[in-house]
Structure formats: C-alpha cells, structure tokens
Amino acid sequence: MTMAIRIHEHGGPEKMVWEDIAVATPGPGEALVEHRAVGLNYIDIYMRTGLYPLTLPAVLGMEGAGVVIAVGEGVENVKPGARVAYAAQPVGAYAQSRLIPADRLVTLPDDISDPVAAAMMLQGLTAQYLLRRTYRVKPGDTVLIHAAAGGVGLIVCQWAKHLGARVIGTVGSDEKAEIARQHGCDFPIVYTRENFTNRVREITGGAGVPVVYDSIGKDTFMGSLDCLAPMGVMVTFGNASGPVEPINPGLLGQKGSLFLTRPSLFTYTAKRDDLAAMAAELFEVVRGGQVKIEVNQTYPLKQAAQAHSDLEARKTTGSTVLLP
C-alpha cells in the first residue's frame, strides 16, 4: 500500500482525496519508483476538472522524481537504486510510490536534485520542443510567450534568450513582470492594463513576431494571431482560460497565411530516442546555468488541493513541487 491523492469524480480541488492505494509488483517493462518529489502542472487541473477526462477513480499527476525500487522483466534502461525522473502518461504521480513504464524514465545526473528534477521535466521538455522543434528559434528572432512568469514561461524566457532571441512576455502584475525580466524577458507586458497585441506591434515596429507560444487559450487566442508576422506560427499549447473556440481556417489566410499548431509533449516524446535526446538537451542547459529552474513553492503532497487552488488563482510563480 502507498498513500496517494486520488479523485473519484471530476470537479474542484475538494474532490482530491488523500488515501491508501495498492501498488503491484512491476510487470514486464515496468519499474516501481519511490517518489522524492512530484511536479505540479496545469494539465493536472485539466484532468481533475474533466477537461481532459480520466477513467475514475484516478491518481493525478504526470511528473515525478525518485528512486527505482524494483523493475520487471525485460527492463534494461534503469536498475534498482537509480535516481530517475519522468513526465509521462499514464497519470499517477501524486503518490508516495507508483508503477510506470520503464522506457518513460530518464536517469538523473548527480548534480540535479530531486525537487529540481520534478519541477523541470514536464515544463522543461515542453520548452524544449516549443523552442527547438515546433518553431526552431534562431538568433535575432523576436518571440512572444504568454504567462512569462509561470513555470514553462520562465524556462522559455531563459532558453530563448540563450538562443539569441528577443523575448516579449505577458504577465499579470508588476511583480511578475520583474520576475520575467530577471529571467531573460526583454519586454514584459502587464496584460491587465496594456493591450498586448498593440504593444507587440509597437515593440516590433509593426512587423509582428514569427512565433507566439500561447498556453492561455480562449482569452488570448485571437489577439495572439494579430501579433504574428505574415507566415508566422501560432503555437497554442494550453487552455488556462478555457479551450479555444472553433475557427474558420480561412481566418489564417486573411491574417497573413499563418500556421496554427496544437502540439502535445506526449507526441514529441512518444519515441524513446526522442525522449532521451530532449532530456539530454534540457539537462545540458540546466547544468550549464543557461536555464535556472525556480522552485518557488513547495507543498506536502497531502495538501495538493491547496496547491491546485493557488495555481488556478495565479498566486504562484515559477515551478511548484509536492513533497511526499
């Protein structure tokens, strides 16, 4: 048995229950991991509320770091005692220990701590595919990242700056603007008092940007399209304000032959070789100091409901870690 946060029905944070669950012996291709830290991500809220429905009852959580306790038949990439991390399906990270497909695990370097690892895998791998694969940022590019003071946002700001880009970011307060600025955001825009579309056009001399990275969704989608240069790339990768409403594809032509994509980390990491290469690149920039992972909040795992409430209320900055 192990303690875990589980939901029996979709809904608010109050639906999250701290309870005993059974953990089986690893089967073929599986590993048993004892968590040292668990990551908190907005996708956990989508799953709790039912925006991304789960088969219930379900243990929430997509990301964790810990130690391999046992492995099943055929597992060769990790051994018992190895320090590992992951950001992967199936859900189940909000637990003291869990079974997981072993090919989803990556071995941690000694100089990356468990809390940092738990904070960086999902958000850091997301930043990697956004900047290096969905739209490959080049020196001299100007990029727009929404929620620039959030977990993914702070990583994108630093990494894009390292790649030679000018970074524009939207934030909700002056405090968050300063945090984003300290992490490589050249032009923080406080969207609560500034029209971000107009500001982006001012900053770029009317040209627009080649790419927008938008995790907000419904509230920012149309304004984001209007920030793009002709043949720009609109990357909508989250729904913090709700899902984007259906659009007529002809609108993309009217606004400058734009490209629209809705990527998913789990597509980009579906192949083991891709996952390993992406993690290696993420570890390289973190260990080299080009990207600093900010664990700005920690909560006991059993208080995950409070962590969800604070994340939804936009009270958090950087990354949040749950400690079993």
UniProtKB/TrEMBL annotation:
Gene3D superfamilies linked to this entry: Medium-chain alcohol dehydrogenases, catalytic domain, NAD(P)-binding Rossmann-like Domain
Example of a GO cellular component annotation carried by this entry: cytosol
Domain Enoyl reductase (ER): 11-322
Stretch forming the signal peptide: none
GO MF annotation: an example: NADPH binding
Domain of life the protein comes from: Bacteria
The protein's name in its UniProt record: NADPH:quinone reductase-like Zn-dependent oxidoreductase
Organism: Varunaivibrio sulfuroxidans
